[in-house]
Amino acid sequence: MLKFSSSKKVLSTAAACMAASALLSFSPLSHAAEEPFTAEQKKAIETMVHEYIVSHPEVLVEAAQALESRKMASQEQALDAAIAHFRNDKNTPVRGDRKSPHYLIEFFDYNCGYCKVVRPFTKKLQEKYKVAIHYVELPILSPMSMRASAIGLALYKQDPEKYLIYQDELMNPKSRITSEDQLKAAVKKAGADYDKINAIATDDPAVGDTLRKNMEISQQIGLQGTPFFILDGKVIRGAVKDFSVFEEIIKQAENEAKSK
């Protein structure tokens, strides 16, 4: 909050705030008899507020900073809630033991090239450390991405191990999902019946609910694209260019655990 050296400035600030509040509460649809100000009064207030802001532009900077701080605080709270949700949600696919000392939450799209490039790093992470990988299906790139995610979640409900085979097949760096035939082939390779899986994807409301929840949470935490990772509470945005990015966070978490 800005602090002014004179009472006149304080009064000016109060007047400006009161005027702004009054203007915000004014509705052009209100009956004329209920309007709080005449046209002349409203014009005078608008002029006063405008002149004050021009004379004290730092108010706008302070307001922007306060807004950004509130936004960040809100996203931090949403991040904590997101971590708790995905680590415990039975409909969120997981590779590894949920009780592992480390966790990686990965938001991905089957048609995200960067997601596929990073996949070898996440597999290596699980080979070197005890990490549970929670896969958040976030089909944002194409209608076929949506179909791939729906089929994937339906397959996970039927058989989690077959889902992992299906996912690995579609996350091949050389593939881009452009047809239903590719989904059928991946389901077949996983050893499942496509018609049965498609029926689950179409008829089970939990599939659509999961995708909607994933989208809702991604917006709340400020996600702007895939891949997006949360590793032991630390956010990693975008493609990871080196395995050390993951490993440093793991080692930091282990050192913190030892010091407690």
What does this entry look like structurally?
- This protein is of the alpha+beta class.
- 62% of the residues lie in helices and 9% in strands.
- It contains ten helices and five strands.
- It has helices at 7-25, 39-55, 58-88, 113-128, 143-158, 160-170, 180-189, 194-203, 205-220, 244-259; strands at residues 94-95, 102-108, 131-137, 228-231, 234-237.
- It has a five-stranded mixed β-sheet, with helices on both faces.
- Helix 5 (143-158) packs across helix 9.
- The longest helix is centred in the first third of the chain and has 31 residues, at 58-88.
- The chain is globular.
- The two termini are 38 Å apart.
- Residues 1-32 have low confidence and may be disordered.
In short:
The chain is of the alpha+beta class and 260 residues long. The chain is 62% helix and 9% strand.
Task: Summarize the topology.
Elements: H1 7-25, H2 39-55, H3 58-88, E1 94-95, E2 102-108, H4 113-128, E3 131-137, H5 143-158, H6 160-170, H7 180-189, H8 194-203, H9 205-220, E4 228-231, E5 234-237, H10 244-259
Parallel strand pairs: 2-3
Antiparallel strand pairs: 1-3, 2-4, 4-5
Helix pairs in contact: 1-2, 5-6, 5-8, 5-9, 6-7
- Main β-sheet, in a few words? 5 strands, mixed
Q: Total number of helical segments?
A: 10
Intertermini distance:
38 Å
Question: What gross morphology would you assign?
Answer: globular
Q: Label the structural class.
A: alpha+beta
Strand content: 5-15%
**Physical arrangement of strands within the biggest beta sheet:** 1-3-2-4-5
Number of strands: 5
Low-pLDDT regions? 1-32
Q: Which whole number gives the mean pLDDT? A: 85
Range of helix content: 55-70%
Order of helix and strand elements from N to C terminus: HHHEEHEHHHHHEEH
Rg over CA atoms, rounded to whole Å, is: 26 Å
